Amino acid sequence: MILLGIETSCDETGVALIRDGNVLADRVSSQMDFHSIYGGVVPEFASRIQLEAIGPLVVQACSDAGVRLQELDGVAVTIGPGLIGSVLVGVNFAKGLAYALGRPLIGVDHVQAHLFSPLIEFDRLSFPYIGLVVSGGHTELYTVNSFTDIVLNGKTIDDAAGEAYDKIAGALGLGYPGGPLIDRIAREARTAGTQHSGNRQNPDGPVKFPLAMMRKGNYNFSFSGLKTAVVRYLHEHSRPLTQERISAIAAGFQDAATGVLVKKTIALARQKRIRNIAVAGGVAANSQLREMFTAYSNEFGIFIPSIRLCTDNGSMVSFLGYHLMKLGRTSDLSVDAYANNTRVPQRARTSAA
Ligand code: KG4
Ligand code: ZN
Question: Domain spanning 2-116+309-346 has what CATH number?
Fold first, then answer.
């Protein structure tokens, strides 16, 4: 079975071809250079650029894979959540293609595509697993029992982790996207040995920020308090705002952000007695988060995909689309796209813990 997967939920345009669960080709067209001029994604521009990118990208991916469009058995596409204009570009393209080819359309939830993406690379990863999705738009913690049975154990009550990274990077004047920039600066600060011993009173030392919502059994996240603490600290200690001070703040922010993500995920896995932990989404590219999780490898199977698969891509959409199609879960051509913060039919069950 050969499927095309299309991902256009934010600023990337991702296209992949998959045969029986194995990725044949994966192309991503990034708009990062464009949006970095504005310090963040400009939705109207994103969708217009995607509209121009998507056709040639599909042709390129087919050529990479040596597959003709007529050979496709289905078209999988992200139907949300995301920037609605962007999602619609992918959805309308996929609908047109599926209709023209007379093949099924498979609508895929973006967060769920991230959630199952570690299965693409790790044969040893099996259900059930604890899945943490950390991206620019979402921070969600799940128990994953099968492709159709996932339980949402916790999520952010305000900002997503990646959003917090991007906002803090903006406040520090580092640019966009903030995740990789803070990651690099914090890593350099750590290597220089300045990070782990300081306190808030010493402006040039490493900064300690509080971990939010650490009450036992609470698997929700909050990043707005941390964001406020960092911004307040910045205002109080910005004269002079030296490179060392920026590094110390970035490193302190990263300690707090990654610390809470790791602690809650590990606590949930222990509470559920589930041995496998998978981490996905753009923030899973973070070097400190990867190291901190990997430190638990004696106790758990830790599965974090390669960086290319952490950030938005078509492979994860084609992969989940393939498994949904095998289960007969195809979509009607009238399926609706949905924006961020609107919930979906067929969403996960929710549970307090
Ligand atoms: O999954 P993704 O590509 O798109 C969304 O679904 O949102 O995630 C993008 C987010 C951005 O906020 C970006 O700053 C963050 O992932 N990110 C990182 C790193 N690389 C990307 N955050 C922390 N450390 C990184 N190395
Ligand atoms: Zn994403």
Answer: 3.30.420.40
